[in-house]
Amino acid sequence: MIDKTKLTLPGLFYSSVEKFANNTAVKFVGEENYTYRQLGEEVELLAELLLELGIKRGDKVAILSTNMPNWGKAFFATSVIGAIAVPILPDFHSNEIETIIEHSEAKLLFVSEGLYKSINQRVCELVEHMVLVDNLAIIPKEAPLDHLELLTTSVPQVNRKFLPINVDEEELASIIYTSGTTGSSKGVMLTHKNLVWTARQSRTLQQINPDDRFLSILPLSHTLENTVGFLLPIMYGASVHYLRKPPVASVLMPALQEVKPTVLLSVPLIIEKVYRAKIQPEFQKSGLMRALSGFAPTRKVLHKLAAKKLHQSFGGALRFFGIGGAKLDPAVERFLYEGGFPYAIGYGLTETAPLLAGAVGKHRKIGSTGIAMKGVSLRIANPDPQTGEGEIQARGLNVMKGYYKAPDITKDVFTDDGWFRTGDRGMFDKNNLLYIKGRIKTMIVGASGENIYPEEIESVINKMRFVLESLVVEKKGKLVAMIHLNMEEVEEHFKNLRAEAKHFISDKSDEVLQEIMKKVNQEVNKFSRINQVVLHPMPFERTPTKKIKRFLYA
Fold it and tell me: Distance between CA 410 and CA 402 in Å, rounded?
């Protein structure tokens, strides 16, 4: 009998199956309903299959799949037999997948049909078994890619009662490999207690109940989605809805109207794109609109009207729009805040399962990530006497066990008194609201020893007209801003002025860049002024969690 009072994934799972048996659990948008009772039955059948394939307590089971109900079945089936899940981000390259499978020593790989092409022959050799997530069929080692759809389910119809494993809270539940902006990937070891405690404590920031509907658009192998977008709703009997296709506008917008989600988790890039494509142009389309949006009282009225329209486009029932994973553009946050949109900012890392702090409701303040989550302790190490800035360090039951097979790196990220070094530089204000200044590794030291945060300069650049995204780097002692412009908007703006040679738009792009540099340098402090602007014609390459891979452009 599973002890449901313990902070373990089997405890969470069986408690919810029992309490919310007839509730909708996980399903595809607009498709057949699927209850917690059905989830419980099918997880046990899949767990039995894993046992028949020789997977035992402590073995690693990798999951390489797009979001779908069967992802959760694979995750829980792994957990209830005491095995360790290794979620792999769908956007990882085949070489990265191979490295993760080899490093984690995964014995079985769950893989979705669409991602089967991402694995190479070496991966097939490394694992003992592969299972197709789409229908839970066993994939023969020699199966060609174009015949996968012919495989039929192999989940056994067992007659005996499955007996789940009573795992300990401190046992390893998951190894999640980070997709860092530095180019290195580490296996973060998270225990059952890390994950379940964080899911439970997340509710201290935002209440979740059985009537809530989550629409899942972030990868389930991302710690934010895994803990807050999956374990949290399952813990409290809510429903989670998945898309069969990537969340592009043509897929997402109808789904929002179909599901009418009450909870949605996002990375900043998504809402920033919406703002720059749909909202900001409306405020810039005429001299009158620019004047109105530049005057605080009328700007707030415009923001409220636009935010109300945005809320309706999200289904009209949204009460929590959680944003995490990177810093949100302050201009976008000001719009959401003044417009009364139900957004929240979360701060955390994969290593902290992931939440450390949250800006929700009355704890929201533009630029802040809010207060520490209940049960988490945060401190600023060696704060600067003048600014109060220093490294953010954390302690709590959500902090990882360490990095898999990397004791030296693990030792380096913990202080002598046991606090986790986040690698982020930040400060608290007088109300204990946390502000993130930037990553310590990306901080640039100025000529006179000043701390320059590229992220802060980028946030100023990104709010400028025509800018889609930017990256600030140091080259030969100078600050260089690489800027990716919205060329369609540039062309539209200038097309009626002149239309002679093709080089005209290029010339105008240089003019736009110089104007951006002038305006940015008027807004930043003198040691953060950029010395050069460079047109970056293509979007920046990003990690699977949508952060720019800075190491590629240094």
Answer: 5
Residue 260: left (phi > 0), alpha (psi -120 to 50), or beta?
A: left
What ranges in 20-81 are assigned the alpha helix state H? 36-52, 69-80
- Cα–Cα distance between 170 and 188 in angstroms, integer? 14
Query: 141 and 38: one domain?
Result: yes
From CA 276, how far away is CA 518, in angstroms rounded?
21
Count CB neighbours of 69 within 10 A. 20
414/267 same-domain check:
yes
Summarised one tens digit per residue, pLDDT across range 212-261 is 999 999 999 999 999 999 999 999 999 999 999 999 989 999 999 999 99
C-beta contacts of 277-281 below 8 A and 24+ residues apart: 278/310, 279/306, 279/310, 279/335, 280/331, 280/465, 281/489
∠ CA 173-177-180, rounded to 5°: 145
Rg of the chain (C-alpha set): 24
Mean pLDDT of 481-508: 68
Q: Return left, alpha or beta for 465; rule: phi > 0 is left, psi -120 to 50 is alpha, else beta.
A: beta
Which CATH number fits the domain that encloses residue 540? 3.30.300.30
Do 450 and 506 lie in one domain? The reply is yes
Number of domains in the chain: 3
Tens of pLDDT, residues 425-455: 999 999 999 999 988 888 888 876 788 889 8
More confident residue, 158 or 288: 288
Query: pTM, whole model, 2 decimals?
Result: 0.87
Same domain, 94 and 26: yes
Q: Is residue 236 part of a domain?
A: no
Going from the C-alpha of 497 to that of each of 53, 485, 500, 526, the distances in angstroms are 70, 19, 10, 35
How deeply is 159 buried, as exposed, middle or buried, from its count of CB atoms within 10 A (0-12, 13-18, 19+)? exposed
Residues pairing with 425 in the sheet: 391, 438
Taking a C-beta distance cutoff of 8 angstroms, is the pair 428, 379 a contact?
no
Least confident of 39-53, 187-201, 432-446: 432-446
For the stretch 362-416, pLDDT in tens is: 999 999 999 999 999 999 999 999 999 999 999 999 999 999 999 999 999 999 9
Place of tokens 């702090």: 357
With contact defined as beta carbons under 8 Å apart, do 346 and 357 qualify? Answer: yes
| Res 502: pLDDT | 46
